[in-house]
Amino acid sequence: MTKPGLITDVSFPQTFTDVLYLTNQGQMPPEIRRLLKDKKVSYCVVPIDKFPQMLYRLDLIGTAIIDTGGLNTSQQQKLARIIESIETKNIGAILLGSQSEQPVKSFSLSSAKTSFSMATTVKSFSIDELWFSISSNLAYRKKNSDIIVKPAISPSNIPTARSNKLAEQLKVTGALVENLTEQLHLAGIVQHDFLPDTMPNCDKVQWATTFMPAEWVSGDIYDVVQIDEKHIGFYITDAVGHSMPAALLTIFMKQALVMREGVNGGSRIFSPAEVMSNLNNRLAGQKLSGYQFATCCYCLLDIETLQLTYSRAGHPYPILIRPNSQPEQLEIRGPLLGIFKDAEYVQQTIQLQPGDKFLLYSDGAEPFIGGLDDLAGFNLKEEFCKIKDLPIVEMFDKFNVLVKEMEIEPGEIDDVTAVGLEIR
What we know:
single chain, about 425 residues, alpha+beta, Rossmann fold, Phosphatase 2c, domain 1, 2 domains, 6-stranded mixed sheet, 5-stranded antiparallel sheet, about 25% strand, globular
């Protein structure tokens, strides 16, 4: 006999669905199912292996819950791509580990006897806290799209304020908004101070960068560092999420990404794969609240031999633009940072030559540069093709204009960051 709640027939959503529950367990925990029914939230349960069939229906999803329990190695590697696909649609993803036997403090008056753990930590949280994350994600989704999301509180339960009281509240709210705007403005200035002031240009290499936050602060950060006389390390990291929480995580990433270590009075330069592995373990070891993880691509350039070695963690593939050749995406596997401790990262090396341009960028730049299509492969945008053969500095100047002038839907606006180099 089939166990109650087991997935026997997958039904993909045809209309807007509040919660997509992805799992390898064959069913949704009854506590979560009961929560969603009590809150009158629509949902669908889909096996993780069936996610590719959901790619063209993500516009119908409000938020996603991913049950990471019981994933095999192959599914763990696919998880990074799943989260990337969900995040690019401005859909919040909640990663669950396993159900916990230990009760945790609940927001409700009654004690919570049901708790769950986050995917990469032993920290437990109650079913009420799970609902808080779900409702927050749905509210954010509503803000950034034209989808109408059912409010968590029925309008009939909201008391009608008197006009004079409302005016007073609006005045206070206006002051709070003004203060918050100023604080965000200052936070953006502080974050900008963490970016490099100058580029290590030389007779062999010319650099150019773009940093355009979607709001006051950015979930992206980059750096270009002259490690020693012959090596330059550079990277872009993108904290998954938006606004202040993502910006705070970028500051941690900036400090946690270490390019070399002291050895016997000297120093040893870490390989890109080591940099990614060390950064991932530091992020996963923080046991951060919520579902905070990041993407990154780190590169190490030898300016004498012009060999460039790179490693990737869930980030858009870098692009090699070679004279008289089609631009090439340099594909390399690597899971997101902060999900699985001791995750494996690999690296690849290419030989650069005069005239080559190498481009790193965050996913917010993909609408202006191009991307990888499952059917058509890698395609550059027509507008970007017109500027790709210009000298790197001029190319980035034109790219900045392109970003500012191209019309983007409000829900599609994201931080745009790019780092490029050209071999003179």
